[in-house]
Design brief:
By secondary structure, the chain is α/β, with parallel strands linked by helices. It is about 45% helix and about 20% strand. The protein has 10 helices and 12 strands. The strands form 2 sheets. It has a 6-stranded parallel beta sheet with strand order 2-1-3-4-5-11, with helices on both faces. Strands 7-6-8-9-10-12 form a 6-stranded mixed beta sheet, sandwiched between helices. It is elongated, with a radius of gyration of 25 Å. The structure holds beta-D-fucofuranose.
Length: about 325
């Protein structure tokens, strides 16, 4: 028994010493330090909502985790600032450009410049409308048309036994942006051919809480008998709730409220009975953005579209199971 133990020990020692000899050689052949740090230029469109701030944080924290050097520029809600930022990334010769386009149109020229410079571009969060789709490598974000459908599906279920007409007002996001267009389209798709539902007025609140309140005040003054508010994001919804309460009505009861995003304050508002449904749209995609950026920097292909996995939160759900939202 002792003899066998002795042999086992000797064998282990032999391999241990072998590992000691080879380890430094391996380190020399492939030194960590020599790996080039990836430089990523990220153009954020602004800071209009809790969603946007959560998205910026997610990108910044993930870049640190992945050891990627991040050049982060906030365009403060102006497309021209985004174009300038992208041009500066090209001049700096970053490895990858990622950006969240404020609107869909107007990117052909600057993206052609990036392509000419050989810098791959990843669209994050919102889509673009360009003549040549090879001007960007891929997209990561949400399926906005599907979000609109989910909002409409909740509405159909919730008002199944309501008498016609069901009068809806809609607060939309930034005109010309992909979430605004997609959510409006998906919502209408399910209501089409159903005369019971009437979208009585559509008005833009630009994804801003302040405008959500302002526009809801206008709607309450100009539109009689509002049954439902469909709001394209939580920030506008939270502003609209203030307007509804100030008008002496009960949000979530006198007016059914359907929103999009799923920020902490909106989930709390469902718990308080003031929002009936929130279609989730997550901004927390930093890790996946970094993984795609690494592939692009290595010259690898990436999927044309990567969608986030999302759910719907309603007044009927057990929301005690929903943890901290992180935005
Ligand atoms: O819903 C809204 C934000 O583009 C998905 O932009 C994003 C939207 C989000 O300001 O809150």
């Amino acid at each position: 028994m002792l003899r066998r133990l002795f042999i086992v020990c000797m064998v282990c020692l032999f391999f241990a010493s072998f590992a000691c000899v080879t380890a430094p050689q391996e380190a020399e052949a492939n030194p960590q330090e020599e790996q080039k740090t990836i430089v990523l230029g990220f153009s954020q469109l602004g800071s209009e909502s809790a969603w946007r701030n959560g998205n910026s944080r997610s990108i910044q924290e993930a870049a640190e985790r992945y050891g990627i050097q991040l050049m982060f520029k906030n365009a403060l809600q102006k497309q021209e600032n985004q174009i300038k930022a992208i041009r500066s990334f090209i001049a700096y010769q970053v490895d990858v450009i990622v950006f969240a386009p404020i609107v869909e149109d107007g990117w052909d020229n600057v993206l052609a410049e990036a392509k000419e410079a050989g810098i791959p571009v990843l669209l994050c969060d919102r889509y673009v409308n360009v003549k040549d789709e090879s001007l960007f490598a891929g997209f990561i974000g949400s399926d906005f048309v599907e979000e609109g459908r989910r909002a409409a599906q909740f509405l159909l279920d919730r008002t199944r036994y309501f008498d016609a007409p069901v009068r809806i007002v809609e607060l939309t996001g930034t005109p010309g942006s992909s979430p605004m267009q997609g959510r409006a389209e998906g919502f209408r798709e399910l209501l089409a051919n159903n005369p019971k539902y009437e979208i009585v007025q559509t008005i833009s609140g630009d994804f801003l809480r302040s405008k959500g309140k302002e526009k809801m005040i206008e709607l309450l003054r100009s539109v009689p008998n509002i049954d439902v508010l469909f709001s394209h994001n939580d920030s506008m919804t939270l502003g609209a709730i203030e307007a509804i309460e100030e008008a002496g009505l009960r949000p979530g009861k006198d007016i059914i409220i359907i929103s999009v995003d799923g920020e902490q304050a909106a989930i709390d508002a469902i718990r308080a009975g003031k929002i009936n449904c929130v279609v989730e749209c997550t901004p927390l995609m930093g890790d996946r953005v970094m993984e795609l950026a690494i592939l692009l920097a290595m010259g690898q292909p990436i999927p044309r579209k990567t969608y986030n996995i999302e759910r719907v939160f309603t007044e009927y759900d057990d929301l005690t199971l929903v943890g901290e939202r992180g935005y």
